[in-house]
Hints:
By secondary structure, chain A is mostly helical. Helices cover 78% and strands 0% of the residues of chain A. In chain A, helix 3 packs antiparallel against helix 8, helix 8 runs parallel beside helix 9 and helix 9 runs antiparallel to helix 10.
Amino acid sequence: MRWVNIRPNRRAATLLGVLPLLLVLVVYLFASAARHAANPADKVLPTPAAMAAAMHGLLLDADPLSGQIIFWADTAASLERLGLGLGICTLSALLVGMVLGVLPAARATFGALVTTIAVIPPIALLPILFIVFGLGETAKVALIVIGITPFMIRDVAAHVAALPQEQLVKAQTLGASSWQLALRVALPQALPRLIAGLRLSLGPAWVYLISAEAIASDVGLGYRIFLVRRYLSMDIIIPYVVWISLLAIAMDFALAQLSRRAFVWAHQVDR
Amino acid sequence: MSALLAFDNVWLEYGDKIVLERVDLAIAERSFVSIVGPSGAGKSSFLRLVLGQEAASRGRILLDGKQLAAECGPDRGVVFQRYSVFPHLTVLRNVMFARECAKARFTGRLFGAARRRAAEEAEAMLAEVGLDDSLHLYAAQLSGGMQQRLAIAQALIARPRVLLLDEPFGALDPGIRQDMHRLILRLWEEHALTVLMVTHDITEAFKLGTRVLAFDKRRIDPHAPHRFGATAVYDLLLKNKLPIETPEVSVTGITIDRVGNNGQN
């Protein structure tokens, strides 16, 4: 049998998917054990026990200065910034993307502007944002917004503009006005694409969040990682990175489920 | 019979390229006009003119004696070869769309009694095209033939003055196509429709039409082929197929404007 025709079934696929993850874990455990055998005070590859011990304090004991439990305070601060940023992005991408997609005149007027903004590397704007908005929350949220909104606007606008012309003509022969066309034909078909765009933007959004937190902050997951880096505290950095990954996977999964539940028609196999 | 749709020396030009020239036609109410011709002979441009997607560069097109607006409106219904249903709406909502647009200017949605009335009307229309057992499927889930049935029902509920079909059965299997021929002929008779159909299939054109128009170029300049446009070079009236005049039919006729349902448009 040719290799290209070997298709694992559901159970086998799940098993095969878990295998590399387990492998990475096992390799880490062996490497960590080997280093500790050579040097019991090794900090680069901490053992699971060392990580648990380091995280214990952050997870359970309140910080004497702020009275908060550090790990949860970091998580809440980061998620708040990310949520605000993604929320603003999604709403503005939907609004602007719809206008650009539905109205050719708006596309002709503002398309080039959006494209120009989209090619600016957002991190290069971070100093400007810090100067304009100060070092507070606004600058961090603004970085996420500036970083991913242009991409999402272009994605939604391109998708709406690419709706078959036949559909738009048909709607007009059924008496639809521009507003009804946008509301009943374009908007429902833009929403699944918006969610898909948001899922793709989660990765960049985390990058911008952690960058902003690393440079100027006093709480947050990214801030904590860059703070403890000075003490070579891999026993804190690694659990934080794993936690960030889990949060990202959970968000992606939730968005995928939302799209599948809310837009059944968009997930049909094409005939 | 009165001329429902009249073309008065209509030209369509893009720059110095002439697509259609000197089109002079009068299309009678209740006729079924098939339009055939080779690719690039302006069949689809002709249909786009009637649809209002394009404006004639010279001449006039009159619908009911009034100049046609160069923007599609509910006085013209259309079924394309593909993509003429809304994949994100159920079969029933697809057909209710025209009513919702007419009655809910801002929300585009009906509620309560008005919604029930629109749904009943849509169900009756869907029963006529044989989709009454698929009301709650999404249009994206339908087969090609069912999508075309839906597209026809969707167009007819808006009670257009003229129904335009752009190769409506071109993408269907031969068996399904025969079913669709029976369906469209039945609807044409029962609802006293006026139909303009563009097709590649000559047999289909003669089987369905009461009048066959063949579009082609009258002359060709080998050095500048784009300088002569196409027009209706053959115009065959198939007399034996004219619809039988039955008085009770014309009252309920969809494309016959006895109730003034297209007056506001």
